[in-house]
Amino acid sequence: MPLQSTSTAENYAPYLLALLLESPTWVHRRVEQVELVDDRTVFHSVSTDLSLGDCSLGKEYVDLYAKKLLPQLLIPVGLLDKRPLECFNLRDSRGGSLSLFTQRETTPMATQMMLQLAKQEGYDAEPLRRNIEAIVDAQPPPSVNQLAGWPSSGDSRDNRELAGALWEEPAFRFLLTHFAAKFLAVAICPSDYCSDRKLLKFSYTTPLPWRRLTPLRRLGASELSFSVPLPLVRLSASYHVEVQSPEGTDVLYAQILRQEQIRNGRAIVNAPDPEDCVAGPRSRAHLYVQDQKFTDNSEYMLTFQLILQRRGLVRSAFVTTLFTAIVLAVLWIFRTRVTTEHNSAAAFLLIIPGLAAAYISRPNEHAAASRMCLGLRSVVSLAGACALTAAGVLNLSVSPWVATLAYGACTVVAVACLLVALVTYAVTAHGESAD
Predict the structure, then answer these.
(1) Using one digit for the tens of pLDDT, what is the confidence trace for 232-247?
(2) Is 378 part of a structural domain of the chain?
């Protein structure tokens, strides 16, 4: 592989370093679509609009490749987490698959890029090659405290002084910190990427973190907040992200924030600028940022809130519990008369559990929406169980006082279920999607 030799890495380092540091000059637009595959997985689909010639060393780089002085056309896709990439798929503008170097294969290149950056800052960092390579190749990524010890990592006094001087350079410290936590994703692209503007597409999946659900959230009566990392915000002139809500839910709020502005998946900023966020229920939320500096140390996150749609299970649960409560209340009021005609009354009561089962059973429902509806489903099931219990009491022909007690208890529980469903129905009133 071309990047595994030091000589090849030295040839590519100046150009890949320039492409990485000057990403907003040649990556004109990046569009990322975020979608929940299930209740544990987020699917990212990224489309990049680029033109290599717009970088300061882009034309020189393209010319060297055209003259066959460089064996392959390599393009830095971005900085991705040091973890196994799941469902990663890299494609060109025609949909054809492209090759991507592994982390181990790009380690020599990333090391050489650090040495090249030190050279541009006026330092010869060759004595620290092994120290830099150890940080770049570290698995798992070194902690902040370990990186803080970088200035004393040299094996001699001169090397420690050199490391300390390099650490004082903002660009060097920034890039080394990011190479420690992430790996440089480098793609092998066809020759037609040398001219004109081209599209580069890739997709991957990340885990979806869930916080412990409160009772209200289990009932669907409160929104759920999520945060998804966006590692590519700084690597383009403009960055667009669109989040798609799972079926049965709406996006109530979405915003791109720095990691320090988020706590437990929720934004902690006091008053977000309306232009920087999307508020109001909708099936899709679109956000964008532009003119971000690559040397901005912040990690960006997409934070969004999901809420159940009123149409669907929420409305069905309200109707079912309302019907159940009314029937059981009538049964309790006319309990003396119903006892003598229990066969027809019991048959009527058995309709309710069937309705509840029809509403509860949704085999094609999205896993995330199903998880949010678990509490509400339990409420509908409890109302159906009350109707089933009342029907059983009628068929058993128990004594009047036992029947009265049973009907009263079932009615009280059914009314409580109705109140819970009513609260959820009222709260999701603003969850009706406008689009």
Answers:
(1) 887 788 889 999 988 8
(2) yes
pTM value surpassing 0.70: yes
Question: How many domains does one find in the chain?
Answer: 3
**Structural domain boundaries enclosing 271:** 207-308
Name residue, tokens 């597409």. Answer: 201
* Contact between residue 22 and residue 289 where contact means Cβ atoms under 8 Å apart: no
Does residue 269 sit in the same domain as residue 286?
Answer: yes
Mean model confidence pLDDT for the chain: 80
Q: Count Cα neighbours of 360 within 13 Å in the Cβ-side half-sphere.
A: 20
321 and 427 part of one domain: yes
- Tell me whether residue 423 is in a domain: yes
* Judgement on whether residues 10 and 148 belong to the same structural domain of the protein: yes
Q: What is the pLDDT of residue 219?
A: 65
Answer yes or no: do 420 and 370 share one domain: yes
From 226, 244, 241, select the one nearest 282 (Cα to Cα).
Answer: 244
Q: Is 50 domain-assigned?
A: yes
